[in-house]
Amino acid sequence: MLGVNDLSGKRFLDVGSGSGLSSLVARKMGAEVFSFDYDEQSVECTKYLKQKYFKDDMLWSIEQGSALNEDYMKTLREFDIVYSWCVLHHTGDMIKALANVDSNVKKDGTLCIAIYNNQGNRSKI
Ligand SMILES: C[S@@+](CC[C@H](N)C(=O)[O-])C[C@H]1O[C@@H](n2cnc3c(N)ncnc32)[C@H](O)[C@@H]1O
């Protein structure tokens, strides 16, 4: 989706990192990565991957936080790539979450998201 094989020198924000796999790939591609998730167990899972593959690495930070928390999002600096895969529609306020993550994209940066299609009644359920 990004159309690149190398993220060296890029700052990459993984919003709702979940397992941490996307963060791991971004770090392997050379990016400086910041991962956060609302869910503590997801944070722990991301930390586990870092411990396993990038132990003591200074270019990958992981913490608990919410994309809906405007104050928290403001404390994060701007990123070349803000990536949020299948997360924003799970927050309870997708429009607010989208506005928040958008403010973390630096000028000429990239916002890369995946959200589910509205499937009518199935989505409501
Ligand atoms: C379907 S999983 C996707 C995880 C990961 N992005 C991936 O592609 O594997 C959705 C994730 O969104 C996280 N999440 C839900 N609400 C959130 C919020 N307000 N802020 C940050 N993460 C949130 C969940 O904890 C969960 O890890």
Give the tags.
alpha/beta, Rossmann fold, 5 strands, 125 residues, five-stranded parallel beta sheet, 5 helices, binds S-adenosylmethionine
Summarize the structure.
The protein is α/β, with parallel strands linked by helices and 125 residues long. 33% of the residues lie in helices and 26% in strands.
Ordered list of secondary-structure elements with their pairings:
Elements: E1 11-15, H1 21-28, E2 32-37, H2 40-53, E3 60-64, H3 70-75, E4 79-85, H4 94-102, E5 105-114, H5 121-124
Parallel strand pairs: 1-2, 1-4, 2-3, 4-5
This protein binds S-adenosylmethionine.
Notes on the protein architecture:
The protein has five helices and five strands, in the order E-H-E-H-E-H-E-H-E-H. The chain has 125 residues and is an alpha/beta fold. It has a single domain (11-124), classed as Rossmann fold, CATH 3.40.50.150. The protein has a five-stranded parallel beta sheet, with helices on one face. Strand 2 (32-37), helix 2 (40-53) and strand 3 (60-64) form a beta-alpha-beta unit. The protein is globular. The mean pLDDT is 96. S-adenosylmethionine binds at residues 15-19, 22, 37-39, 42, 66-68, 85-87, 90-91. S-adenosylmethionine (SAM) is lined by residues 15-19, 22, 37-39, 42, 66-68, 85-87, 90-91.
